Structures are given as C-alpha cells and as structure tokens.
Amino acid sequence: MRVEYINPFVESAYNVLSEVLQTEVNRGELYLKSAAMPMLGVAMIVGLAGDVEGRVLFDMKLETGLAVASAMLTSMDMEPVEELNDMARATLTELANMITGQAVTKLHNLGFRFDLTPPAIFSGQNMEVSDPNFEALIVPMELPQGKIEINVAVRERT
Predict the structure, then answer these.
(1) Which of 2, 49, 58, 94 has the fewest CB atoms within 10 Å, measured from its CB?
(2) Strand duo 26-27 + 42-50: pairing
(3) CATH number of the domain that residue 149 is part of
(4) Full residue range of the structural domain in which residue 52 is found
C-alpha cells in the first residue's frame, strides 16, 4: 500500500475532526492488519473504485459515535442524540463524507482518478471486517469523545 494513498485520509481526518469538533485530536501509532478484525461498534464505510480501489472505514464505539454526533449537532444549535437514531446516523455519515471528500480532493490533485460510494453505516456487536485481497492500515485518532479508527485498505488497480 503506497503512502500517497494513506496520507490524504490521515490528514483529512485530523483536519476535519479538529475543525468540526473544535477539539484536540491526537493520532495514535499506525499499524497494519491483514486478517479479519473485529469492529468497535459503529462504522461508516466508503468504497473506492477507479485508478485506486478499496475502502475506507471509520470505526468507533457506540458511545464515541453518539458523543461525536452530539458534539456536531450542538455546534449547530441542535439537540444532542442519546441513541443511534436517524439523526445520529445522518450526522456520522456526513462526517465520513467530509473526511473522504477532502481526502479525495487531495488524491485527485495528485493525479489519481476514482469514484466513491456513498457512506454506509453499520452498527452492532460481534461484527468484523475481512477482505483477503487487501491489507488495511489502521490509524487511531484519540479525541475527548473517544477513539476513532480510520481503517484504510486501498491499492492501485492492476
């Protein structure tokens, strides 16, 4: 996996989370994962196809997802959420859109051309993501609301 694919997602996640949540964001140690891995509880996934293919997954515990969605909503003078309802889902998928959109702009500026799928959101316990064709780079982001793991599995189309 080339670093040119990863850095735009890491930079964009840091920038968007810092700006939208008006808080400090600390990036944890990156690590690779090639086998099936358990998900934390709430995940937004965006697919990529074109010059590069794969997916980006934004994974967090339910409590973190609710805290992040609530912080975003209250910054817009809206009510916080206490459950993963339609408003919480829409807010979290919009966060994924913002991060991915910024990353894709950076990748397009580097000459890569590809399309995105709209973010899909998954929630529940005992879920895992597995794709034997991709090795994923995990980028943990620590926020006051909790940890968000950006799981990037992208490669150049062969």
Answers:
(1) 2
(2) unpaired
(3) 3.40.1550.10
(4) 3-156
